[in-house]
Write a structure and sequence with these properties.
By secondary structure, the chain is mainly β. The chain has no helices and eleven strands. It has one domain: Calycin beta-barrel core domain (Lipocalin), CATH 2.40.128.20. It catalyses: peroxynitrite = nitrate.
């Protein structure tokens, strides 16, 4: 592993939702989802990730997202770059402190025919809890809604 990404080593591995994640937003009905997360490295000063969500009953694919997590060398500053199957590409920046990563959108781009209302801001928090499970909380603001929690999910590690 490149020593630059060592502060994020707690995120490495394959993770599965346990229990299903919960999603909500003022413009949506409450929903649940399953998710597989793969976070890896290939020796570069960056982590690779993919998030693959599925409907809990039908197992039909839902949200997909992949990208990279970079650390600014010799700091706790982090950049999270992701492309989503919804046509959104985002750059989020923030800090890693111990086993917690908090990031906020720095820029969001979307395809010209993206569904409205458009996402205007995203925040994420990842943390490794006391049981060794990874938790993610995502909040967002859209053109019609202020910043509101959208997703919360807990994952158990299935491979290192």
């Amino acid at each position: 592993m490149n020593p630059v990404v060592e502060p994020l080593s707690w995120m490495l591995g394959t993770w599965l939702s346990d229990p299903p994640g919960a999603g909500t937003f003022p413009t949506l009905q409450l929903f649940q989802y399953l998710e597989e997360v793969y976070i890896s490295h290939v020796g570069q000063p960056v982590l690779n990730f993919s998030f693959n969500a599925f409907h809990p009953d039908t197992r039909k694919p839902m949200h997909r997202e992949c990208g990279f997590i970079r650390l600014k060398p010799n700091t706790n500053k982090v950049a999270f770059v992701s492309a989503q199957n919804t046509g959104i590409v985002e750059v989020e920046e923030g800090e890693v402190n111990g086993q917690e990563l908090c990031i906020t959108s720095h820029s969001i781009a979307r395809i010209s025919f993206a569904k409205e209302p458009h996402v205007e801001q995203i925040t994420r928090k990842f943390r490794l809890n006391s049981e060794g499970k990874l938790e993610q909380t995502v909040s967002m603001a859209t053109t019609t809604q202020p910043m509101t929690q959208h997703l919360h999910i807990t994952y158990k590690k299935v491979t290192p």
